[in-house]
Specification:
This protein is about 45% helix and about 20% strand. It has helices at about 15-20, 30-40, 60-70, 85-100, 115-125, 130-145, 185-195, 205-220, 245-255, 260-265, 275-285, 300-310, and strands at about 10-15, 45, 75-80, 105-110, 150-155, 160-165, 175-180, 195, 225-235, 270, 290-295. The longest helix has 17 residues, at about 205-220.
Length: about 325
């Protein structure tokens, strides 16, 4: 295991999916939560992505509002299903959003789980599910070409002839792109093609082993080490309120499958602040530079507890 030379950055996932599940379709409380987290010192604010497999707000539109509500924060998608989107349109959207947040945009991107509701999303968007990896890779390559502000001719899944896109992103070269993957091939792809690796679990030991693979792949391809950001689910509460049981109930409702199945692929921890911080430390020792936290239970109380004890992370 390795320890990052700098303290890890701490991120908060806004509860877009949870609000829609409760029938709360407005965004005011989401923007208030973003302000609270930023005021407590959280470095980054994140939103998820889904059409109807797990219905929620459009991530890019919402992040534009978050940029204004919580200035100075890094903004990110956790994670964007970029293959559902035309990359020319997406390049313009992301460049505009990067200008709004003045270069603090990070695109966490994934291919989506192989599950019937996710396959239905791809079918509804007229996108072949089996070809989503290639669409993601080529789509972002095209975005990056368009972000250079020079005429682009492209012969591939998309056909462009000497076109120039505006605006250019605020960050030269465009937003950072972190690839979400829990398999070795995805780790290698993140090191070779992207700026970061963004796994969801399942535990610190697995992250440590794949982080070693990430560093080796970056060295092989003569690229700087990619950022390692880990997506983690935590519930901070007293033993009397059984925080682990709260997570199980949350996972079952959120995904519509038994909680044990989700825990096999997602890293989750319930406990008091001390127990959760000790658990988070293991991911930092495994090589995580950035912890993106999805909270279960009382968000405001958890945010305050995490902010108060974040010095323990390094």
């Amino acid at each position: 295991m390795t320890t990052p030379t700098n303290p890890p950055r701490l991120g908060y996932l806004l509860p877009t999916r949870e609000n829609v599940m409760r029938g709360e379709h407005g965004v005011r409380n989401l923007l208030d939560a973003a302000r609270i987290a930023r005021g407590l010192g959280f470095d980054s604010l994140w939103v998820g992505d889904s059409l109807f497999a797990r219905p929620r707000h459009d991530p890019l539109t919402l992040l534009g509002a978050v940029a204004v509500a919580a200035p100075g924060a890094t903004l990110g998608t956790a994670v964007l299903l970029s293959a559902l989107r035309n990359p020319v349109v997406l390049a313009q959207q992301l460049a505009t959003l990067d200008q709004i947040c003045e270069g603090r945009l990070v695109i966490g991107a994934g291919i989506g789980a192989d599950a019937p509701p996710v396959r239905a999303e791809f079918a509804a968007a007229s996108v072949p599910f089996e070809r989503r990896v290639g669409r993601l890779v080529e789509g972002f390559a095209l975005c990056r070409a368009l972000w250079r502000g020079e005429p682009v001719t492209w012969e591939g899944r998309w056909q462009l002839q000497d076109v120039t896109l505006g605006p250019q992103p605020h960050r030269p070269g465009g937003p950072l792109i972190w690839l979400a993957s829990n398999v070795d091939a995805g780790v290698e792809r993140a090191a070779r093609l992207f700026d970061g690796w963004f796994p969801i679990g399942p535990d610190a030991a697995t992250i440590a082993a794949r982080h070693t693979l990430l560093l080796a792949a970056a060295s092989e391809h003569r690229r700087p080490p990619a950022t390692t950001a880990v997506y983690l689910t935590v519930c901070i509460d007293t033993p009397d309120n059984n925080p682990e049981a709260q997570i199980d109930a949350y996972l079952a409702e959120y995904y519509g499958v038994p909680a044990p199945a989700m825990r096999r692929v997602q890293a989750c921890k319930g406990g008091d602040t001390e127990a959760v911080m000790e658990w988070l430390q293991a991911f930092v020792r495994a090589g995580a530079d950035h912890l993106v936290l999805r909270l279960v239970g009382n968000h405001q109380r958890a945010l305050a507890a995490l902010a108060e004890q974040r010095h323990l992370l390094g």
